[in-house]
Amino acid sequence: MTQDTRSQEAGTPPRRPGPAARSTGTGNPQAVKTTTPARSRREIKIVEVAPIAPKARMRRRHWIAALTFGLVCVLPTVLVGWYLYTRAADQYASTVGFTVRAEDGAQQVDTLMGVAGGRANGSDADMLYEFIQSQGAVELVDERLDLRTLFGKPENDPYFTLSADTNIEELLDYWRRMVRVLYDPGTGLIEIEARAFAPQDALNITRTIHEISAQRINDLSAVAQADVLDYALRDLEDARERVREARLALTEFRNTEQIVDPTADLEGQMGLLNTLEAQLAEAIIEYDLTSGQSGRTSSRASAIEARIAVIENRIAQERQKLGLGATGNIGGYADLVGQFESLTVDREFAEQAYVSALAAYDAAKADARRKSRYLAAYIDPTLPQSPLYPARATLLFVTLLGTFGLFCLVTLIGYSLNDRR
Residue 301's closest CA among 289, 312, 311, 313? Predict the structure, then answer.
């Protein structure tokens, strides 16, 4: 039974054949064949799986690394910790702070003498900073306190203490370890921290440092004042010599010209000359009157004429004096007055310079009587109550950190050499 017959029996219309059935002349759709390409096979890659790793175990390099860690890191840290907490002696720190100051009076004198002055002398502070760390300061403190005995008191601490048979160079190195100097160049402040194994010893060190520093500043101030006095004394001696020479020249002029004061002598000569000229005028007038009344041959006219001749002769002599010096050298009396005035001005100037030099010398002496520069302490030497050094925890941590870094470096170098084989 075909599909159309089954459709008719079921009461449904028969299905029309599709295009493929019509083309072949039959209604069977199974007559159409389709072709599909064959699937390509996948290539299968075989992966070799390594066997399971065995259980980890200590090898020779591990034992070497562990031994190195113990020797390089653990053992030194344990030894340092044991020494710090069982053998290292306590250290007490005393502090003192000071600066170099200058007095106002010294500043004024320095300004007058042409020397720069100020409230705080930075150059003196710089020099004092270097002096405290120098061998000279160590020797001065050692003379007063016996540093070898003071720093060698703890007997069971050979590392932090000082041996009794050390030389001055070793003592200087140890001094720089135990005495810390802080200096601020901007303000000129110097702060010193001195350590010792007893509170009183630390206090004595800071006191001694303050004393020798003050003495050094006083010595420097004395040297500066001596220089100022020396300069002032030289100026005074020069001014005194100039006064002596000026007075000697004026005395020689007076002796040579035989004139004490040419100005006064000139006034006298001019007064005498004026008087003679007035008398001459009167005599001439009288002569004219007499000669007009009794004639020129009269005895009275002859007497007046003789008087006129005498007055004229005297006037000529006085005028000759005004034109000649006592030595006979021709020269005006004005030249003598000019020389005298020049010598007088030189003497007065020398005397004024001498007065100024004497005042400067007196001021320099007054300044030398007092201390122009001094050491001002802004922190008095302190007496410590509890030890601050050695910083055991800090030193132990630094030791551990350093040894661990060394261990890491050695381990890396060892593994690198092993990998290059």
Answer: 289
Four-CA torsion 62, 67, 68, 73, nearest 10 degrees: 120
Cα–Cα distance for residue pair 105/370, rounded to 1 Å: 10
Count the domains in the chain: 2
Whose CA is closest to 134, among 74, 35, 223, 209?
Answer: 209
N- to C-terminal Cα distance for the chain?
91
**pLDDT by residue (tens digit) across 84-96?**
999 899 999 999 9
Instruction: Assess whether 211 and 308 both reside in one domain.
Output: no
Shared-domain flag, residues 306 and 389: no
* CATH number assigned to the domain comprising residue 292: 1.10.287
Q: Determine the Cα–Cα distance for residues 183 and 128; give it in Å rounded to an integer.
A: 10
- Answer yes or no: do 226 and 97 share one domain: yes
Report yes or no: 194 and 205 within 8 Å, Cβ to Cβ: yes
Specify the pLDDT at position 34: 44
Q: What is the pLDDT of residues 319-365, one digit of tens each?
A: 766 654 444 444 566 677 778 788 888 888 888 998 998 888 888 88
Residues 27, 33, 38: CA angle, nearest 5 degrees: 160
Q: Are residues 189 and 239 in the same domain?
A: no
**Same-domain check for residues 150 and 193:** yes
Burial (0-12, 13-18, 19+ Cβ within 10 Å), 396: middle
Given a cut of 70, the residues of the chain with pLDDT beneath it are 1-43, 53, 103-122, 261-269, 295-296, 320-334, 369-371, 421
Six-digit token pair at 61?
A: 């390099």
HSE (side-chain half, CA atoms, 13 Å) at 329: 8
pTM value is 0.59
User: What is the rounded CA–CA span in Å between residue 354 and residue 150?
Assistant: 59
If asked whether residues 262 and 394 sit together in one domain, one would say no
Q: What is the rounded CA–CA span in Å between residue 160 and residue 390?
A: 9
Backbone angles phi and psi of 63, in degrees to 5 = -65, -35
Token pair, residue 265, equals 């002598």
Residue 255: domain span: 235-368
Q: Are residues 266 and 310 in the same domain?
A: yes
Contact assessment for residue 160 and residue 114, using Cβ atoms and an 8 Å cutoff: no
pLDDT at 118: 41
Nearest-angstrom CA–CA distance, 269 and 322? 8
The CATH number given to whatever domain includes residue 209 is: 3.30.1890
The 179-184 sheet, strands edge to edge: 179-184, 189-196, 92-102, 373-379
